[in-house]
C-alpha cells in the first residue's frame, strides 16, 4: 500500500512538472500576441509545439524550447534538493547563477521585474531590497517545486513560497499570487482532489500570502478569483468563457490578470492539463506563464495519463530535462522531511 501511494504521488508530481514545462514551451511562440494574431499567424489554433515567427522576440528558438518559467523552477527545485530549505540568500544566488548560465540578460530571457532585481543583487542589494518592486508573476511561475516538497505542512509551504519570491518579487501582491498557486498545486496532489478543492486552497493561499513581503496596494486576489469564476459562470460554451476571461480579467503578466486567469482556466477545463494549456496558449498575452501555471496545477491534479507524451518527450529532449528524475528527488525529500 505504501509503495502504491508512492507510485500515485510520483505520477502526480511528474504530471505537475510536465504541465509546467509543456505549457511554457507551447506558449513560448505565442507570447506577446493577441488571439487574432495567433490565429492568423499560425493558421488557426496552436495545438502543438511551434516555431516562433521571424518577428517574434524569440525568433530562431526551436519548437519545444522553454523560457524562464521552467528554467527558474528547475533551478529552485535543485536548490531545494541540495539544501532542503530555501533562504533568501540561496534563492538570490540560485537565480543569479541561473541567469548567467542561461545568458538570460543578453537574450532578453527574463521579465523587467526579474532583470531589475537581479541587477540590484549584483550591485550588492539584499534580497529584501532587490525584490520590493516586483509586482508581476515571476514568483508564481517558479513556485511549483516548493508545493511539491511542502504540500503537507501549511506553515512551511507559505514561508518557503514567500522566500522563493523574495529576491525578485517580494511584494505582498506577488507573494499572494505565488501562494495561491503553491496552495493550489499542494491541494491538487492530495488523494481525491477535485477542481473545487484546488480553487478553495488557492483562495486560502492568496489570503495567507498577503502576510509576507513589502506591502503594496492591490485588489484581494481571492475576491478577484471569485469575480473570474462568477464571470465565466454566465456562459455555457467554453469559447465564450475564454473570451470573457480575456476581456474582463486579462492576460497581462500582472498577478491580478495572469495568475487569476490561469486559475480560472483550471475551472473552465475541469482540471484537464492539455485543454488548459491549449486554451492558455491561444489566449494571447503572457501565454507561456499562464499555460505553465495552469498546466502545473492540472498536471498535479490529473497526473501523467492526461498528457501528450510525445510532446512532453520533445520538450525534455530539447531542453535536456529529466522531469521524472527531478520528481523522484523532490518526493524523496518530502518523505525524508516526514511530510508523508
From TrEMBL:
Binds 2 magnesium ions per subunit. The lineage of its organism: Bacteria, Bacillati, Bacillota, Clostridia, Neomoorellales. Coiled coil: none annotated. The keyword Hydrolase applies. Belongs to the ADP-ribosylglycohydrolase family. One of its GO terms (molecular function) is metal ion binding. InterPro entries: ADP-ribosylglycohydrolase, Ribosyl_crysJ1, Ribosyl_crysJ1_sf. It comes from Neomoorella glycerini. It holds the Pfam family ADP_ribosyl_GH. Mg(2+) binds at residues 67-69, 286, 288-289. Its cofactor is Mg(2+). This is ADP-ribosylglycohydrolase.
Amino acid at each position: 500500500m505504501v509503495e502504491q501511494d508512492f507510485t500515485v504521488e510520483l505520477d502526480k508530481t511528474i504530471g505537475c512538472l510536465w504541465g509546467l514545462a509543456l505549457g511554457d514551451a507551447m506558449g513560448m511562440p505565442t507570447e506577446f500576441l493577441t488571439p487574432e494574431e495567433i490565429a492568423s499567424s499560425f493558421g488557426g489554433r496552436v495545438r502543438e509545439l511551434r516555431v516562433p515567427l521571424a518577428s517574434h522576440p524569440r525568433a530562431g528558438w526551436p519548437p519545444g524550447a522553454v523560457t524562464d518559467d521552467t528554467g527558474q523552477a528547475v533551478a529552485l527545485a535543485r536548490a531545494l534538493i541540495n539544501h532542503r530549505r530555501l533562504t533568501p540568500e540561496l534563492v538570490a544566488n540560485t537565480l543569479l547563477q541561473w541567469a548567467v548560465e542561461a545568458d538570460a540578460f543578453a537574450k532578453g530571457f527574463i521579465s523587467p521585474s526579474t532583470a531589475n532585481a537581479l541587477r540590484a543583487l549584483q550591485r550588492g542589494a539584499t534580497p529584501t531590497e532587490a525584490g520590493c518592486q516586483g509586482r508581476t508573476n515571476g514568483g508564481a511561475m517558479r513556485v511549483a517545486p516548493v508545493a511539491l516538497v511542502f504540500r503537507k505542512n501549511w506553515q512551511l509551504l507559505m514561508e518557503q513560497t514567500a522566500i522563493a519570491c523574495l529576491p525578485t518579487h517580494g511584494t505582498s501582491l506577488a507573494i499572494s499570487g505565488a501562494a495561491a498557486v503553491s496552495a493550489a498545486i499542494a491541494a491538487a496532489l492530495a488523494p481525491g482532489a477535485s477542481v473545487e478543492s484546488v480553487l478553495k486552497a488557492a483562495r486560502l493561499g492568496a489570503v495567507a500570502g498577503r502576510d509576507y513581503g513589502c506591502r503594496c496596494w492591490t485588489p484581494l486576489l481571492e475576491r478577484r478569483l471569485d469575480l473570474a469564476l462568477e464571470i465565466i459562470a454566465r456562459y455555457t460554451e467554453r469559447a465564450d468563457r475564454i473570451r470573457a476571461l480575456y476581456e474582463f480579467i486579462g492576460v497581462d503578466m500582472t498577478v491580478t490578470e495572469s495568475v487569476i486567469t490561469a486559475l480560472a482556466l483550471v475551472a473552465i477545463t475541469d482540471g484537464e492539463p492539455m485543454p488548459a494549456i491549449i486554451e492558455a496558449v491561444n489566449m494571447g498575452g503572457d501565454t507561456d506563464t499562464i499555460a505553465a501555471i495552469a498546466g502545473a496545477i492540472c498536471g498535479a491534479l490529473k497526473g501523467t495519463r492526461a498528457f501528450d507524451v510525445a510532446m512532453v518527450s520533445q520538450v525534455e529532449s530539447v531542453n535536456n530535462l529529466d522531469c521524472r528524475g527531478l520528481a523522484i528527488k523532490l518526493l524523496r525529500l518530502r518523505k525524508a522531511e516526514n511530510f508523508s
